[in-house]
Specification:
Helix content is 40%, strand content 8%. The mean pLDDT is 93. The chain has helices at residues 22-34, 46-50, 68-72, 83-98, 109-114, 120-133, 135-138, 154-163, 188-200; strands at residues 11-15, 39-43, 102-104, 144-146. Helix 8 packs across helix 9.
């Protein structure tokens, strides 16, 4: 969507010893597909050292086969403490360094129903903070946090991506993939992804260990 709007894209990925580290391979394939050359991969060890999340602590189980009501009833165990705050801070640092003022983040309505660092209030507060916290902001630059998916359902996201030619076969969503990288088919992310394709009337190109719910 950023490319479609004419932005020159610099991509950021984060290696924080997450269960689904295969997403980093997926990111590289997608960037190659789009011919994006500038890609920063940051290693952040604090999340796995602190634990407290099923995405970084192998002693905690990733929830499976939950309904949407169950997914959004409380902050899930897959929440990583302050992750988006940290990620956006890195993005702001990169933006200031390279002279960019637009930061794109893929949060959407279903995300912020369960994750506090995906809420519109947080994104707005971070944007305000960004313009106060760094030299470029003090000198007149105006940083903008773009959230093009925020009001879209999963079905609408799939349809929009399809219209833009997104290579969904290269993308990865699963929280708990197999050692070979196959999606589990039962975690919240797998369920929502599969329902998105199904609701859009499109084939889901994801390879699952088991059939998605």
């Amino acid at each position: 969507m950023a490319l479609d709007q004419g932005f020159e894209v610099t991509a950021l990925s984060f290696d924080y010893n997450q269960r689904h580290k295969i997403e980093l391979q997926s990111a590289r394939r997608i960037l190659e597909h789009y011919g994006i050359k500038r890609h920063y991969v940051f290693n952040i060890g604090m999340f796995s050292k602190l634990g407290g999340s099923a995405l970084t602590d192998t002693d905690l189980a990733v929830p499976r086969d939950r309904s949407l009501d169950e997914m959004t009833a409380a902050i899930p165990i897959t929440y990583v403490p302050a992750r988006n705050l940290v990620f956006l801070s890195y993005a702001l640092g990169v933006a200031e360094t390279i002279g960019a003022q637009a930061i794109f983040v893929g949060v959407n309505g279903l995300d912020y129903a369960g994750y506090p660092d995906c809420r519109p209030e947080f994104m707005e507060a971070f944007e305000n903070t960004a313009n106060l916290a760094v030299k470029a902001g003090v000198e007149g630059a105006r940083f903008k946090i773009h959230r093009p998916l925020v009001d879209l359902t999963k079905v609408e996201i799939i349809r929009k991506g399809t219209a833009l030619g997104v290579p969904y076969e290269l993308t990865h969503s699963c929280y708990s993939p197999s050692a070979s990288g196959l999606a589990c088919g039962g975690c919240d992310s797998c369920v929502l992804r599969h329902e998105g394709f199904e609701g859009a009337g499109l084939d889901d190109p994801t390879q699952y260990v088991v059939s998605a719910a």
